[in-house]
């Protein structure tokens, strides 16, 4: 059997991104909103290692602080979406046939509505965008597919001998859930939760690129990418390439970690 190699490089990149973003206030050489009118649109140099934007802000500083915003939104929205999916999927899988079918039809109906449209409508209801409003709207619109997967896991586990035996001996819903179901699909939940972090960062970046994300005073990776439109017209290649490479590196790292978790989960089930 081939042992799957651990994504050490991906873990290192993601860990570095998390730590540097968390310590942005200490590491960053400038304040995130400090504008130097004498340093507008400067290419990378010793003084500004990643260059400056068209407002004279240090790009290295913006990337550090932007990472904090994007990662907070990604992690919080993933927690919200995973929690909703776990509860809904488990209840659907444990319910009788008619209720299960009704709950899954409701999910199919929600999935037929474009996710971006749902996010825009909910954000309009909540008002001005901030960390928490974006986390909420992305989280509550990104759980449907996950709930179907969890529901399938619960249905599969309910047919196993140990769950059938527990039901025959009068095991309560909460006992079966705690002792038999949750421990056996926890790894699947973790896989989807990590995957959702990447999806949420992409969603935040898309909203910011469309001008629907955080205000300009709140920096995020998506907000930096939205500035690339102006950079194209002024030949400021560093405003496009550097934030893009940072964002792609983090997303690829998350994908590699997700694939590793998926592989471990698949191997576990194949050995049962």
From TrEMBL:
- Keyword entries, A-Z: Cell membrane, Membrane, Transmembrane, Transmembrane helix, Transport
GO cellular component terms listed in the entry, alphabetical order: plasma membrane
Q: Where in this chain does the record put each ABC transmembrane type-1 domain?
A: 67-258
Primary place of residence? membrane
Kindly list the residue ranges recorded as spanning the membrane: 69-94, 106-125, 131-150, 185-216, 236-258
User: InterPro entries, from UniProt?
Assistant: BP-dependent_transpt_permease, MetI-like, MetI-like_sf
The name under which this protein is listed is Peptide ABC transporter permease
Biological source species: Mogibacterium pumilum
